[in-house]
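User: Please fill in residues for this 246-position structure.
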């Protein structure tokens, strides 16, 4: 029941903001269109939110444009939805649940189909709540851009430092930069919410802080992948082409 309660909480949050995301308040007729996007920019944004590493792993929140126009609340909601409910993410949640069950983690969940369902529910709730708060809720509330803005040039050291910094520094909707409250608050809020569905032995302040810190660490590693994957892919592709030509 605890896993079901967690999924209900996450689903309720999801549904409550879906209406706002799909039906934003209309802007006054006289409002300037400073951030209006051309058809080309919309096409680039759509293409970026369809990116996949190795053609499989979702990489929807990365842009190669340092001057990319800000995302609208609706676009941030779409980023959250695509990231959280992609079939690959469902598969990852299932894999995590299977490994957890094989190692008898969270023994309170038991074994069999029921135990697997509870572990899958907890893993999936973690993914959904993390994406919801980091990619949509806080970025809309604080007017931050949740995407990773790839540097794509400079020394490895500079780009590595840049990638790690992006976990605590972000672009704003106004075009500036600020502390990435969305990333940090998102991790800790999702970690706190997990107390609603994890077994009693896995709840509490200390475990919440630990899970949140681990989530931030994994996100930082994800930024490094976002920064360097295109270079690695390009190198491998051209190396393969060269070997084929020889």
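Assistant: Residues filled in for all 246 positions:
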């Amino acid at each position: 029941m605890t896993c079901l309660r967690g999924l209900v909480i996450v689903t309720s949050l999801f549904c409550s903001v879906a209406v706002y995301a799909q039906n934003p308040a209309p802007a006054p007729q006289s409002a300037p269109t400073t951030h209006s996007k051309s058809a080309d920019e919309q096409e680039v944004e759509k293409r970026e939110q369809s990116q996949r590493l190795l053609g499989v792993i979702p990489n929807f929140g990365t842009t190669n444009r340092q001057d990319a126009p800000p995302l609208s609340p609706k676009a941030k909601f779409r980023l959250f939805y695509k990231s959280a409910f992609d079939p690959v993410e469902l598969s990852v949640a299932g894999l995590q649940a299977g490994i957890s069950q094989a190692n008898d983690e969270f023994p309170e969940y038991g074994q069999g189909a029921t135990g697997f369902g509870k572990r899958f529910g907890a893993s999936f709730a973690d993914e959904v709540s993390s994406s919801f708060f980091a990619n949509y809720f806080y970025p809309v509330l604080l007017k931050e851009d949740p995407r990773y803005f790839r540097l794509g040039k400079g020394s490895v050291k500079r780009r590595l430092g840049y990638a790690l910094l992006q976990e605590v520094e972000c672009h704003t909707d106004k075009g500036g930069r600020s502390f990435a409250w969305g990333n940090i608050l998102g991790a800790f809020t999702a970690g706190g919410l997990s107390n609603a569905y994890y077994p009693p032995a896995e709840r509490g302040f200390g475990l919440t802080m630990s899970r949140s810190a681990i989530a931030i660490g994994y996100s930082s590693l994800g930024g490094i992948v976002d920064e360097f994957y295109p270079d690695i892919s390009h190198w491998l592709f051209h190396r393969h082409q060269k070997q084929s030509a020889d």
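For context: Residues 2-7+49-245 form one domain.
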